Amino acid sequence: QVQLVESGGGSVQTGGSLRLSCAASGRTFSSYAVGWFRQAPGKEREFVAGLSRSGGATYYTDSVKGRFTISRDNAKNTVNLQMSSLKFEDTAVYYCAARDTYYPSRRASDYNYWGQGTQVTVSS
């Protein structure tokens, strides 16, 4: 098993930046593909970004391409989401997730492990 803990959320103005981190403990983190999801009030949880086990393949939802960057450091058991040019519609609770496969998935149901979430609020 792996345990995930997110950090780095907060409040920021439109156009600002935040860096989310997800710390993993338990089984070897490099065995897992990882993803970031978000859920806004009244909406379903949606895929934001994903990263393969090695970190060599990245995936983004269209609305964040060019603004968000996902990365991982397997030596430190962390995965990060650098968010820039934030928009009001990026406001949500952001979750880190892991699945014991090589590639990530865009479907939340495909992930075995989840963090508790961290709030990101973007205001004008």
Secondary structure topology:
Blueprint lengths: L1 E6 L2 E4 L4 E9 L6 E7 L6 E6 L6 E3 L7 E6 L4 E6 L8 E8 L13 E2 L3 E6 L1
Parallel strand pairs: 2-11
Antiparallel strand pairs: 1-3, 3-8, 4-5, 4-9, 5-6, 7-8, 9-10, 9-11
Detailed description of the structure:
By secondary structure, this protein is an all-beta fold. Helices cover 0% and strands 51% of the residues. It is built from no helices and eleven strands. It has strands at residues 2-7, 10-13, 18-26, 33-39, 46-51, 58-60, 68-73, 78-83, 92-99, 113-114, 118-123.
Key attributes of the depicted protein:
globular, 124 residues, four-stranded antiparallel β-sheet, seven-stranded mixed β-sheet, mainly beta
Brief synopsis:
This protein has 124 residues and is mainly beta.
**Structural class given helices, strands, pairing?**
mainly beta
- The residue fraction in helices comes out at under 10%
- Beta content comes to over 45%
Order of helices and strands: EEEEEEEEEEE
Mean pLDDT: 95
Shape label: globular
Tally of DSSP helical segments: 0
Count the E strands. Answer: 11
Please describe the biggest sheet, giving its number of strands, its sense, and whether it closes into a barrel: 7 strands, mixed
Multimeric state of these chains? single chain
Radius of gyration: 13 Å
